[in-house]
Specification:
Blueprint (H helix, E strand, L loop, with lengths): L3 E4 L2 E4 L4 E7 L8 E7 L5 E7 L6 E3 L7 E6 L4 E6 L8 E8 L9 E4 L3 E6 L1
Parallel strand pairs: 2-11
Antiparallel strand pairs: 1-3, 3-8, 4-5, 4-9, 5-6, 7-8, 9-10, 9-11
Length: 122
């Protein structure tokens, strides 16, 4: 069982930066693929980024490539999402997730956090 708690969301101006974090409980954090998804108002939850258990492999949605960076610190049981050059369309609730498959589908992930809201003002 893994419990995930996101933090760091807030209000930021377009063009600005924000780093959100996800702290995981449990001693097996380093064995999980970690992902970030987001859900904009009135829309479905969509893949943003994923990182392998070692941190050696990452993947991104085309919409955030070059602007967002996912990273993890297994010693701190934490995964991060650094978001730069933010746009109004990045406004969403951001969820972190843990799973065994390095994928982009929600079905690839087993455990989910409660989400942290990011609002980008234009």
């Amino acid at each position: 069982q893994v419990q995930l708690v996101e933090s760091g969301g807030g209000l930021v101006q377009a063009g600005g930066s924000l780093r959100i974090s996800c702290a995981a409980s449990g001693r097996t954090f380093s064995s999980y693929v970690m992902g970030w998804f987001r859900q904009a108002p009135g829309k479905g939850r969509k893949f943003v980024a994923a990182i392998s258990w070692s941190g050696g492999n990452t993947d991104y949605a085309d919409s955030v490539k070059g602007r967002f960076t996912i990273s993890r610190d297994n010693a701190k049981n934490t995964v991060y999402l650094q978001m730069n050059s933010l746009k109004s369309e990045d406004t969403a609730v951001y969820y972190c997730a843990a799973g065994r498959i390095f994928g982009k589908s929600r079905d690839d992930y087993v455990y989910w956090g409660q989400g942290t809201r990011v609002t980008v003002s234009s």
